[in-house]
Design brief:
Blueprint lengths: L5 H11 L5 H15 L7 H9 L14 H26 L17 H9 L1
Helix pairs in contact: 1-2, 1-3
Length: about 120
C-alpha cells in the first residue's frame, strides 16, 4: 500500500475484508490503482468517520473520484450485516430455539441397523 495515501489504504484494507463477489474484487482493484496514481488522499477525520460509524456517514461528503468507492464500501457493510442476520436466524431454528433441531453429534446409526435387522 502507498504511504502517501494512508486514508485510502485503510479504506481499501477494510473493503478487502468484505469481498464476497467478483464485483467487489474489481472495485477494490480499481481503488488500488487509484491509490497508486498519486491522487490526493482523503482527510484522516473523514476516513475515521467512515470506518468507525459508517451507518451515520453520507457518501456525498466524499470528493470525487472516491465517492463511488465509499458508496460501495457502505453497500458491502450493509450486505455483510444482512448475511450475518440470515445466518443467525438460520442457526436459531424455526422457533428461535437452536435446541429444537436434532444434533448430528448425538445421532447414532445403531437404531437404524437394528430396525433393518428386525424386519
Amino acid at each position: 500500500m502507498s504511504k502517501a495515501n494512508p486514508g485510502i489504504s485503510k479504506l481499501l484494507s477494510s473493503m478487502k475484508k468484505l469481498i464476497l463477489e467478483v464485483n467487489d474484487q474489481e472495485i477494490c482493484r480499481r481503488l488500488d490503482i487509484l491509490l497508486h496514481s498519486g491522487k490526493d488522499d482523503l482527510p484522516a477525520p473523514m476516513i475515521r468517520r467512515i470506518l468507525e460509524n459508517p451507518t451515520e456517514f453520507d457518501a456525498r461528503e466524499v470528493p470525487e473520484p472516491y465517492t463511488q468507492y465509499v458508496k460501495h464500501y457502505l453497500y458491502m457493510l450493509k450486505r455483510d450485516a444482512r448475511e450475518k442476520e440470515k445466518d443467525r436466524i438460520a442457526d436459531s431454528g424455526p422457533r428461535g430455539n437452536s435446541r429444537s433441531r436434532p444434533s448430528k453429534k448425538n445421532f447414532s446409526g445403531a437404531g437404524i441397523t437394528a430396525k433393518k435387522a428386525h424386519r
